[in-house]
Amino acid sequence: MIVDFGGGFFLRHATADDHSALCEVCLKTGDAGNDATWREDDPALMGQIYAVPYQVLEPDLAFAVDGAEGVAGYLFSVLDTKSFNARLASTWYPALQQDVADPGPDQPTWRNSDWVRHAIHHPNFDIPEALNAFPSHGHIDLLPQARGRGIGRRCMSFLEQQLALAGSTGLFLDVHPRNTDAQLFYAALGYERVLTPANSATSMFMAKVLRPEHRCC
Ligand SMILES: CC(C)(COP(=O)(O)OP(=O)(O)OC[C@H]1O[C@@H](n2cnc3c(N)ncnc32)[C@H](O)[C@@H]1OP(=O)(O)O)[C@@H](O)C(=O)NCCC(=O)NCCS
Fold first, then answer.
1. Cβ(87) to ligand 1 under 6 A?
2. What CATH number has the domain spanning 2-215?
3. What are the residue boundaries of the structural domains of the chain, listed by start?
4. Using one digit for the tens of pLDDT, what is the confidence trace for 137-157?
5. What single-letter DSSP state applies at residue 92?
6. CA 94 / ligand 1 centre spacing (Å)
7. Does 75 score more than 60 pLDDT?
């Protein structure tokens, strides 16, 4: 499976060989869409939550965007968030917890990647009820050289088709409230904000109903 976006950019399935590149994209977009390199002391750790498990646990819906300089982005989704979270809880997080020390509950003492270490030891797999109509969720992150070329729109359209074909009725994204560029991007694609009691300083949900017409382009 390869989608040619033009300009030397292509979409293809991600593989295990991409893990370090996927972690790098995660790091370089991990500060509400901007480069988080300045903040993290373990450059691969965010990717162990937000990138690698998607390729490992849901490989059919894990894609890399290739550019002239290598991997320039990724597109991940899971068909059923509840079942994916159950697999994270039973296998992925317990393995990570073996390798990473818990920084403890005292948030003011956390430094650099400690927030990720804390999230690894105290994951929150709750899904707000307001998202019940949207069983699937996704992530898209493109490096600067791949942005503003229509690739994001084409990726999301492709993903919506894949999910609708697989029977999904809706897709949600968890967007950082400071990431207004991403919010405007999703709004341009027809995603609407879903208000939940769980909305917090770090989480905001945008979602779209997937209808049978999403199954064809
Ligand atoms: C957000 C992101 C995926 C968008 O992808 P992109 O390829 O740059 O977006 P596109 O060029 O496909 O734009 C699609 C539409 O969104 C609109 N859009 C994109 N960014 C926008 C912005 N900052 N403000 C307003 N509209 C925007 C475009 O105008 C375009 O509308 P049109 O097709 O009607 O002209 C990409 O910029 C990115 O990865 N950013 C950094 C990481 C990130 O924030 N990821 C999302 C985390 S939730």
1. no
2. 3.40.630.30
3. 2-215
4. 999 999 999 999 999 999 999
5. I
6. 35
7. yes
